[in-house]
Design a protein that fits this description.
single chain; globular; Rossmann fold; seven-stranded parallel beta sheet; alpha/beta; about 240 residues
Length: about 240
């Protein structure tokens, strides 16, 4: 259980982020919901409050230091120090190689790679002060197995995996763990908006179905718990068999 813990979940206005925020709250955490989409973040926070936990919504860009500073200050004021950080916010557009520009690459890297770095910079001091912390980054099976029309996305998520391992080693003696969850083909609003036929693609996978956001949320909840206090630097693949590690 996560009673007494304060969690930050980025990109939690919908999809995986919302499912993660709800699961952490149901396990006892108070949750600060961060997203560029403030209205969606407020909806997530309201669901959590209706279920009996404290929650706030913070609007802003997870790759903007000023927005992060404001969100941290708001979270401290309303909920207290943070000891669980889930870096979920990400872009994942499908782009043909010939259409992949430097601007598209840079915009995605700012959210997918710089964002987790900045959020860790802002929140690790809370964890150091508490002598405990859980950093859970959301990577992707696209980084493990590759993905066509996703060169920028796969590269960024490979960076997230490496970043997680480096954090794990550096903070291993402090009570802070760093792990990442690598989702596979999960049925979210973002996936349904992608230029592919979700049901047909799912049939190609070993389980022949897409995953649910709650599958990812359950993995995150385990890594955030005291049961995972000896797990660090790990990539927990939740992908229905797409990539076996």
């Amino acid at each position: 259980m996560l009673n007494g813990k304060v969690a930050v979940v980025t990109g939690a206005a919908r999809g995986l982020g919302r499912a993660i925020a709800l699961r952490l709250a149901r396990d006892g955490a108070d949750v600060s919901v961060w997203d560029l989409n403030l209205e969606g973040a407020q909806e997530t926070a309201e669901i959590i409050r209706q279920e009996g936990r404290r929650a706030i919504a913070c609007g802003g860009d997870s790759a903007n230091p000023a927005d992060i500073a404001r969100a941290v200050e708001h979270t401290h004021r309303e909920l207290g120090p943070v000891t669980i950080l889930v870096n979920n916010a990400a872009l994942s557009p499908f782009v043909f190689w010939d259409d992949l520009t430097e601007a598209i690459w840079d915009d995605l890297m700012a959210i997918n790679m710089k964002g987790p770095f900045l959020c860790c910079k802002a929140i690790i001091p809370d964890m150091r002060e508490a002598g405990t912390g859980r950093i859970i980054n959301i990577s992707s099976s696209s980084a493990q197995a590759g993905s066509g029309f996703h060169a920028h996305y796969a590269a960024s998520k490979g960076g997230v995996i490496g970043f997680t391992k480096a954090l794990a080693i550096e903070f291993a003696g402090t009570g802070i763990t760093a792990n990442n969850v690598a989702p596979g083909f999960v049925n979210t609003e973002g996936l349904r908006a992608a230029p592919l036929e979700v049901d047909k693609v799912a049939l190609v996978s070993p389980m022949k179905r897409a995953g649910r956001p709650e599958n990812i949320a359950a993995a995150v909840a385990f890594l955030a718990s005291d049961d995972a206090d000896y797990v660090t630097g790990h990539t927990l693949s939740v992908n229905g068999g797409r990539y076996l590690n």
